[in-house]
């Protein structure tokens, strides 16, 4: 898997997260209620206690978690694609051997 495809995947992920955020703002979902306070944050964003005060986790930590998850998924997809490519090559060599056998039989 090339670096360009990884960067492309990250860019697509970032754009989709951005568009999801815009859709959530348009819907006016009222936010997420945690610890008795309603926060205008994504549902999967954590509320942490810092200095005795609860608040949404930093955007950097949230995005890192999102990107780590996306990179893991992209890596898994890359591994699946590699397996498919190797199986395809095996099948191509088998087909070529069969074609040679058929040609030699004639």
Largest sheet: 2 strands, antiparallel
Query: Order of strands across the biggest sheet?
Result: 1-2
Count of DSSP H/I helices: 2
What share of residues are in beta strands?
5-15%
Could you tell me how far the N terminus lies from the C terminus, measured between alpha carbons in angstroms? Answer: 43 Å
Helix content: 55-70%
> What's the total count of β strands?
4
Could you write a compact summary of the structure shown?
The protein is an alpha+beta fold.
Written overview of the protein:
- With 106 residues, the chain is an alpha+beta fold.
- Helix content is 68%, strand content 13%.
- The chain has 2 helices and 4 strands.
- The protein has helices at residues 3-27, 59-105; strands at 32-34, 37-39, 47-50, 53-56.
- The strands form 2 sheets. A two-stranded antiparallel sheet has the order 1-2.
- β3 (47-50) and β4 (53-56) form a beta hairpin.
- α1 packs across α2 (59-105).
- The longest helix has 47 residues, at 59-105.
- The chain is rod-shaped, with a radius of gyration of 24 Å.
- The model has no long low-confidence stretch (mean pLDDT 83).
């Amino acid at each position: 898997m090339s670096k360009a495809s990884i960067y492309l995947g990250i860019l697509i992920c970032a754009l989709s997260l951005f568009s999801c955020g815009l859709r959530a703002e348009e819907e006016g979902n009222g936010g997420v209620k945690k610890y008795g306070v309603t926060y205008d944050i994504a549902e999967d964003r954590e509320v942490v206690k810092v200095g005795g005060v609860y608040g949404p986790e930093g955007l950097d930590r949230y995005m890192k978690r999102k990107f780590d998850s996306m990179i893991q998924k992209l890596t898994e997809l890359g591994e699946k694609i590699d397996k498919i490519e190797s199986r395809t090559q095996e099948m191509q060599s088998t087909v070529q051997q069969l074609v040679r056998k058929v040609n030699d039989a004639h």
